[in-house]
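User: Predict Fimbrillin family protein's structure from this.
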Amino acid sequence: MRKFYLGALGLLVMASCSQDETVGINHDGDEITFSVVTNSATRAENVFCNNNSATNFHVSAISDGKSYIEGDDIAYQDGKWVNQDGTRYWPDESVDFYAHVNGGTTYDWSVSEGKATAKFNNFKVNQTVADQVDLMYSVKTGQTKTANSKVILNFRHALSQIVFQARNESENLHVEISGVSICKLNDTDNFTFPSTSTDNNFVDHNGEKPNTALTNQGTWANENTSKAGTASYSVTFPSVTIKAENTPLTTTDDASKNGEYNANTMLLLPQQTTAWEPKAGVGKPADQTGSYFLVKCAIYNVAGSSFDADTDVPLWGTQAAHKEVAIPVAANWDQGKKYIYTFVFGNGNGGYEPDPDPEDPDPDPEPVLVPITFDITIDDFVTVDPDIEIETGVPGAGE
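Assistant:
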């Protein structure tokens, strides 16, 4: 695991998807019915998985080169998926289905020259993290009427999930964190659905070497292009004292669906960015290109065997007033994956002052913590008076 010490970070990349189970109900007759599979992710209210599925989705379909369904609302009611726009029936020709969750007004459906196109146009990530949505899509092609026909839709996450944790590797430091921001990101992009079924899934996503290759994904226009952005996203939480082991700041555990940090899980655009580069003469990061974290924290020197808030000296901020530290980061995020950023305190300079004194004629980004290191010199023995004589004779001898 790559790690950048004290305010820099180790990055763990994990796939956030696994196909766990199918939820649905069979019906007799020619009615088109649905079953839904949702890959696993983390957030109590609006990050979905099989144990926390969406309550509704919208579906469009094409058959025989013509639009057959246009954005029907399918809701889960009384143990089954019910079409709120009325019953749809199987045609003689095969049907291709395109479904989405949380696409809203950005969803665009069209059929031209016998081919369907499903897109999210100008999808913009909500700046308020608690209001961000889990944008999902599904494609199922070549479906025909059979006995107990049912369309099984496997939904995928179109966004990237970003969560945070921290650890303190120094017994000489006391560290508290109450917020994290990530700055200079892209927040708007266009997404095109794949033309083939989204049935296959991540393999062994919880293993030591997860297989995160996934074919037949949709595409974000700027996902694989390094592009400077201006958006910032912030989460705050009650002050967390950072321990020697990894300490969650926002939800990092797939098994936790109702944790107190769920509302702080970020759902952001897949993207590539370059990191802000702190160097002489360039001023504060907000006025430059390149993405970076702001970690709101207090750091104290621990003089004795344990932290004493009354006597130990604050090195950055205080318990009563946390201060932000700027840390360069380069994003390289793929859709449907969760990225756990670990802030490691204990070595290094600890990030940079994000807002240098404007009165400073050369407001360079100053390191927040400068470690106390030692080197030594030793004075030479100085000859004061080389002519001191010592008499060694025995008093009275020879008299």
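Confidence is low (pLDDT under 50) at residues 1-29, 38-45, 254-261.
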